[in-house]
Amino acid sequence: MALRRTTATATAVAMIAGLGAAVGAMPATAAPGTVEVDLTRSTGEIYGGATGVLYGLSDDGVPSDDLIAGQRPRTVAQKAPGGEQHPNGDALEIAAPFFANGGEQVVVYMQDEYSRWPYQEPEDVQADYLPRLRAQVQAVLDSGQDPERFAWVPFNEPDWIWYQDWYGGDREKFFADWDAAYAAIRSVDDDALIVGPNEAHWRPGPVREFLTHAQESGTVPDIMAWHELGTGSLGDGTNGYRTRYQEYRDLEAELGIGPLPINIDEYGNRQDMGNPGRLIQWLSMFEDTKVDADMAFWTYAGNLSDHAVQTSMGNGGWWLNTWYSDLTGHTVELTPEAENTPDTMQGIAALDEARQTATVLLGGNPEGGSLVLHGVDQTIGDEVDVYLETTDFTGQEGETSAPRVDRVQRLDAVGGDVTVTIPGDGEQAAYRVTVVPATSDAVDEPETGWSASYEAEDADLVAAQVYDQAADWDYAASGRQDVGSFNTPESRATFDIEVPADGTYELGILHGSNTQWGQHALYVDGEFRERITYSATLGWSYRGRTEVPVDLTAGAHTISLRASDDDGALDVHYDITLDRIDVAEPEPDTLHFPLWRSRLSGDVSVDHSTAARAVTLAPGASSQTFVGAPEDGYYDLVRTGDSDVEGTVQVTASGRDLGAEAGHVPAGAATVTTTVYLHRGVNELVLTNTGDTPVSIDGLRTVRDRDADASTAQVEAEDLVLEGEAAAQESRWASQGTYVDGLGQNGSLVWERPADLGAGEYVLNVAYANAQVNLGHPYNTDVVSRFVDTTEDGGATTRSVYRHNYTWDGFWDVTSGLTLETDGGTLRFGRSDGAAPNIDRLSLSPLTLGTTVDDGAQDGLALEASVQQRCLGGRVFVAVRAVNGEDVPMDVELSTAYGSRTVTDVDPGGNAYRSFPARTGSVPAGEATVTGTATIDGEEVSTTEQVPYDAFDCS
Question: Which of 86, 287, 488, 492 shows a CA-CA span of 20 to 30 A to 187?
């Protein structure tokens, strides 16, 4: 879900109401944090180097191309080609997807050739090591990759590995080995970029001595590197990064070197990763000094340093990294709440004059405060629209679909200034403030949805213990504490919550499960509701996020998570760490993605005169949008625009072309809708003008189309033909209690393809389990990805990758692209060169189900209505949703036999929703009545639709 978090107590409703205050108004008691931005004072072009990662990629496909493209690390540091330090993360194996998704430079840790940590030291370093260096460089030259995009680190942290006794003889030994390594690398590639000295921490004296020697010997590195790993780097004095950066630049000037590019190729600690409020402090330092920086590697390869959830989802920190990579134009002067002080409000500000857009990323203090922008009248305009978004901590393995706009306000630039109130969502939250010219239309208020959060440490606890998680080495926890030792039948945590209205809410639980799946019993107001199932995580303090719907009436309630239900102690693992619960209105089925907020490249203009803020793409120009999908399945991808002439765009989803029909741009106002399968998490959507004339596009929206899911063919693995060593095994976590193991070279699954799945583009979804690891590293978990080869009889073989998911019998769903070349060739699932993961079920879905074009010529109003029934607590709920397909606001009345509701001023593309409780376990067939009323060309127009639904029985 897209969480807009408010830390809540028993007065949650009152606190939430306070968020509706005007953006430009200061609260009664001023928040302590003030950040000032001067839009008239440029500090240089945006560099964008701080989202780099050490071992952030493990295999081609882990993480997904979508996540790489979104975070868009400029650099990644990976192991040497063929290196033995870790089982994956080979620089050559990840180079192609990295470069294809916006990456610039692969930094090669050459000592990761060795298997042990710290590296085993050869008796004769030069005799053993130099041939290895030459072979690595040659491997890149032989690979066909551009060698200019690789940088070589011959020694990693030499100050404590191999050369610790600096003044006891190791200094001279390092100088000799450095010169020899330098020469060995250059003997293979004269133009190779060499990085050094790459020390574990900044040491001004030894660095001075090293550079002096390198000058004399002609071995000065091309890129300077060292590491900044602790919270002290965010502070001042000699331990602060800014002080050390300036000390190095002064040293360069004194010695007559450079200035050299800098890569802080390991930064931050466990506490910082996936933690937006802490991460913004690191990003701001490195962007201010215009350096590359790679987040440290504390867990396992392939998860973008704790920002990739599973394979294709992002957490709250990933969205901050993506915001940073979205910045265009140049940075401008920003004065933080307090210079060089951890856990105060820090930020980055950028101005793009061509697009009349100012953007500020900030956060990091507990209380919030004020953002004061100067020079708004000179750069944006006298009247502006201000958008505020929030991204919060959701757990290292906790997905959030997409941050939504929390507030929009139209403000006058008083004396040239605009003041924006930053909410106090806690020190782990970060914010994006976007300032654009005011349009001629009324301000477009966002659909934020109600939500509140409750810390586990504040709950009423029985037989459970609060633990602090605040040290650098601790994984980040919400509020820096969590609740563990939940290991007796009496263990329980009870939360006092309050919700504003009757309805179905989403209960999101941040938890840690120590490599086991488990369950808790959910009680609401003392009544047992259901068992909640938690998937495994890396450990008790490594957080995932589980979401379940819960039916609540307006007012106060207790939510209790217990190790026992009415029948006694649960019969499964229940020692689950609890961190926080979120209670929120369900994410709407319609999500909006205005094109002016996407990444735009080429000859592009934005029309700020109307609320649509239409984007015009000249031939060859493109937009890149990262769409969050709350679940796997079909979505109507709706594109609106008003082009002067007919045109053509190529539309790709996760790199796959959706076809010519999806790319048609009609002349005049029109809506083009393509039904496409999207995977849960982040989907990259790219529109590229492939025609000869400019095209105008307002934006994109996705509308969940559950009826279209009937086009998916799904099968249980145990129901297929099992060949060789493939065998069915029992697990309570499998969808039907059974899964298949033994797949690989000597075992396979055979699926006689359904007749209606002919040749074409498909999405393959596999529910899999894989817990393979290499053992022995002192702090990294050396996880191993497994692969599945899908072979079509008469067609091709396609390989899909499945990263480690902590258990052998708990299953994650992962999608991959599959092109079928025959009309009915049998599909075989196995692996030609090793073991495949265990498989629970598989499905095949056509990539697209067609495109429709609506030019607006219609009778009545464009109103899409749907009804869905569901069971909660043994009772039926009838949920009615209506989507406004018009370009003007609409009043919508939803009515069933169980109640009615009118939603006023539903925005264009927005939706009205109500879940009506039947208060019984079954309902007869019936129909919902949906009436929309809007003013079109000065006249009031109404449309009424009757939506039938079948009888429904929860038993």
Answer: 86
Let me know the angle formed at the C-alpha of 231 by 229 and 232, rounded to the nearest 5 degrees. 95
Residue 421 CA to residue 370 CA, distance in Å, equals 5
Half-sphere exposure of 731 (CA within 13 A, CB side): 25
Give per-residue pLDDT as tens, 60-79. 999 999 999 999 999 999 99
pLDDT for 640-697, tens place per residue?
Answer: 999 999 999 999 999 999 999 999 999 999 999 999 999 999 999 999 999 999 999 9
How confident is the model over 222-248, as pLDDT tens digits? 999 999 999 999 999 889 999 999 999
pLDDT above 70 for 12: no
Query: Nearest Cα to 681, choosing from 700, 660, 702?
Result: 702
Taking CA atoms, 144 is separated from 83, 92, 148, 622, in Å, by: 19, 10, 12, 28
d(CA 126, CA 181): 8
**Alpha carbon separation from 804 to 63, 94, 303, 453, 681 (Å, rounded):** 11, 17, 11, 30, 18
Hey, is 676 helix, strand or coil?
Answer: strand
AA letter at 183: A
pTM of the model: 0.89
pLDDT of residue 775: 81
Distance, in Å, from the CA atom of 454 to the CA atom of 463, rounded to the nearest integer, reads 19
- Cα gap 339→336, rounded to integer Å: 6
d(C-alpha 933, C-alpha 889), whole Å: 9
| Two structure tokens written together for 768 | 């899999």
Helix (H, G, I), strand (E, B) or coil at 149: helix
What is the distance between the alpha carbons of residues 89 and 297, in angstroms, rounded to a whole number?
Answer: 11
Q: Which domains does the chain have, with CATH numbers?
A: 22-39+333-447 (2.60.40.1180), 52-327 (3.20.20.80), 452-584 (2.60.120.260), 590-699 (2.60.120.260), 712-850 (2.60.120.260), 858-955 (2.60.40)
Cis? peptide before 118, omega within 30° of 0: yes
Summary count for the chain: helices (H), strands (E): 10, 68
Tokens representing 708 are: 């279209």
